[in-house]
Design brief:
16% strand; disordered C terminus; seven-stranded parallel sheet; Rossmann fold; 7 strands
């Protein structure tokens, strides 16, 4: 494989949930590979810090991914960056950490709106533009919970939904030259997992074949590969990046520590 096929030179990408954690690493890695990236998040301060550190290759844009009109603003802003808008990373996600009996309608709706509706809206608005550019790659960030389960029912439902939505999109958008894949991170060392106690974290890691937490860069390398021409025959796939959690390791023991 030629290293040039891994290059993202001349491409424009949109990354949601980009201010920190995995999203921030997606932005850094793709700009390192030559892309210009519109970094989308609600956290203006964190976005500004990110793009200031990266430089001109990254541009900050504040938007709520659950809002159609704001997605249209994202599209218009991305088209002003120059180059071909050919990469979308639907990374934005929230979790409520509530059980079925404690989940409120408002809490359920917000998780579904961001994680699932936001993913659909991104593809709805940007896929036609990507088609005009000759195609591209969409990477939907689901979760290991989209292959197994999570104690938060809304989060689990949303991430299984992203997995299924990706399959439908791969079929529909393939004739447009657009590949669509989902990735399924497990325990990644990001602020989203700061809630976990040392006991819970230890129990989870003890059951992994690779007994360490994943790092944001681990996921970012996978996303950059899927965005590149090197992954040109991969679409409709669900790729676990979870240290082996869904290979057969079970969460039964970890439940004692919740």
């Amino acid at each position: 494989m030629s290293f040039d096929r891994l290059s993202l030179e001349g491409k424009v990408a949109v990354v949601t949930g980009a201010a920190k954690g995995m999203g921030g690493e997606h932005v850094r890695t793709m700009t390192d590979r030559g892309a210009r990236v519109l970094a989308v998040d609600l956290d203006r301060d964190a976005l500004d810090m990110l793009v200031a550190d990266i430089g001109a290759a990254a541009v900050a844009h504040v938007a709520d991914v659950a809002d159609l009109e704001q997605w249209e603003d994202v599209r218009d802003r991305a088209l002003k960056l120059g180059g071909e808008l050919s990469i979308l990373v639907n990374n934005a996600g929230v979790v409520s950490h509530t059980r079925i009996s404690q989940t409120t309608k408002a809490g359920w709706d917000r998780v579904i709106d961001v994680n699932l509706k936001g993913t659909w809206l991104g593809m709805k608005v940007l896929a036609p533009v990507m088609r005009e550019a000759g195609g591209g790659s969409i990477i939907n960030v689901s979760s290991a919970a989209g292959l197994d389960q999570h104690p938060d029912p809304a989060y689990t439902a949303s991430k299984w939904g992203v997995r299924g939505l990706t399959k439908t999109a791969a079929q529909e958008l393939g004739p447009w030259g657009i590949r669509v894949n989902s990735i399924h991170p497990g325990y990644i060392d990001t602020p989203m997992n700061d809630f976990a106690s040392e006991e819970l974290t230890g129990a989870m890691l003890s059951m992994l074949p690779i007994s360490r937490p994943g790092q944001p860069q681990d996921a970012a390398e996978l996303v950059a590969f899927l965005a590149s021409d090197a992954a040109g025959f991969i679409t409709g796939s669900e790729i676990a990046i979870d240290g082996g959690w869904t290979s057969g390791a079970q969460a039964f023991e970890a439940r004692r520590f919740r």
